[in-house]
């Protein structure tokens, strides 16, 4: 039950937030960035730049922040330029996880002008979107940190972007919930309804998954929570509970299971939820509807 002791340690969240997120391997990044470039280039390439810019023209550009936030996605942006043309030089001025101020130079880039412009939108799409996720995560992580609570993302990710979006959450000081359906057992209301009972669902899951696979159960009421605790589940997902009910649920589960709150959590509500003593807060909006950070590419 090591995960319980870690999650319930008041300073665990702050210590984990201080640990830098390791970069994603190129092997994971390259197929996604290559596909994004191919999508943008279509069947003929950049017909605008090819028509009006001579092939031997060189250019110098700078990636700059236009608002405050947390940087994420620099490797994806760099790879977009490198895959477009190996002669492009990408010189980062800062690293993922850096807190940006308006006007900060993120990277200097120079090389063939046509290739630079061909990769521009793909690079900015990755950088702006992932920095938006990291920035939103950091704001909420800062809000809940005094309570020893951690912020989780969910599987509500944009198709094809899961590894990158979950990486950006880590950069912002958050944690990742399941990457996919094979990571851990999460028994939800529809599973219980189809199985016929919570007990049947838990017993079947344990028999199938094995002792090394984590088991979490979603509960909507205190009665369901008591049943789940009696079945000795490791984690309980407290879904759509008001703060008074959450506080009672946390008290019931203390010392018996790790607690995670979910359901319509926002930046505005995160602090009051964390104040109930819950170990984790799951927020789908971090990945499915976050606002992109404003980052631009300027000519030098």
From TrEMBL:
**Where does the UniProt annotation place the signal sequence?**
none
| Gene Ontology terms: cellular component | cytoplasm
| Protein keywords | Glycosyltransferase, Pyridine nucleotide biosynthesis, Transferase
Query: Would the keyword Glycosyltransferase turn up in this protein's UniProt record?
Result: yes
Q: Which SUPFAM superfamilies match?
A: Nicotinate/Quinolinate PRTase C-terminal domain-like, Nicotinate/Quinolinate PRTase N-terminal domain-like
- InterPro entries the UniProt entry points to: Aldolase_TIM, NadC, NadC/ModD, Nicotinate_pribotase-like_C, Quinolinate_PRibosylTase_N_sf, Quinolinate_PRibosylTrfase_C, Quinolinate_PRibosylTrfase_N
Question: Where is each Quinolinate phosphoribosyl transferase N-terminal domain found?
Answer: 46-131
**According to its UniProt record, in which pathway does this protein act?**
Cofactor biosynthesis; NAD(+) biosynthesis; nicotinate D-ribonucleotide from quinolinate: step 1/1
- Which intervals hold domain Quinolinate phosphoribosyl transferase C-terminal? 133-298
GO terms (molecular function) for this protein are: nicotinate-nucleotide diphosphorylase (carboxylating) activity
EC nos: 2.4.2.19
Q: Which family does it belong to?
A: Belongs to the NadC/ModD family.
- What is known about what this protein does? Involved in the catabolism of quinolinic acid (QA).
Q: How does it assemble?
A: Hexamer formed by 3 homodimers.
Q: What PANTHER family does the entry give?
A: NICOTINATE-NUCLEOTIDE PYROPHOSPHORYLASE [CARBOXYLATING]
Q: What is this protein called?
A: Probable nicotinate-nucleotide pyrophosphorylase [carboxylating]
Which species is this UniProt entry from? Kerstersia gyiorum
